[in-house]
Amino acid sequence: MERIVGDLEEGKKIMEKLKELGLDDEFGAYYDAEIVHRKEINSARNDGRKEGRKEGRKEGANNEKRSIAKNLLKDGLPISKICKYTGLSKKQIANLT
After folding, report:
1. Are 73 and 49 in contact (CB under 8 A)?
2. How many distinct structural domains can be found in the chain?
């Protein structure tokens, strides 16, 4: 801050008052670090939300496929056809029963 204020008397008074309040360069560094930390946390939260939504969509699609496969099994369709129509493996279909 001293570099910015230079020889300005008013600037020196302000700088002195900031030091009294604990708002000097050291405080500024802590403040900046806290802001960066909060941004990192928010970014991680947003990434987590995006990942959660992606996983939710995938899980929903898989649940729908399993539900369709169950209905096709009830109707007596061969497992090979159910695999073809749903994209599920024979093992996945076998686990539905």
Report:
1. no
2. 1
Domain containing 45: what range?
Answer: 2-94
- What distances in angstroms separate CA 56 from CA 24, 48, 49, 51, 64, one per listed residue? 48, 12, 10, 8, 12
pLDDT tens digit sequence for 50-88: 999 999 999 999 899 999 999 999 999 999 999 999 999
Residues 79 and 93: beta-carbon distance below 8 Å: yes
**Which amino acid is it at 46?**
N
In one-letter notation, the amino acid at residue 36 is V
- Confirm if 82 and 88 have CB atoms less than 8 A apart: yes
DSSP three-state, residue 97: coil
Q: What is the pTM of this model?
A: 0.50
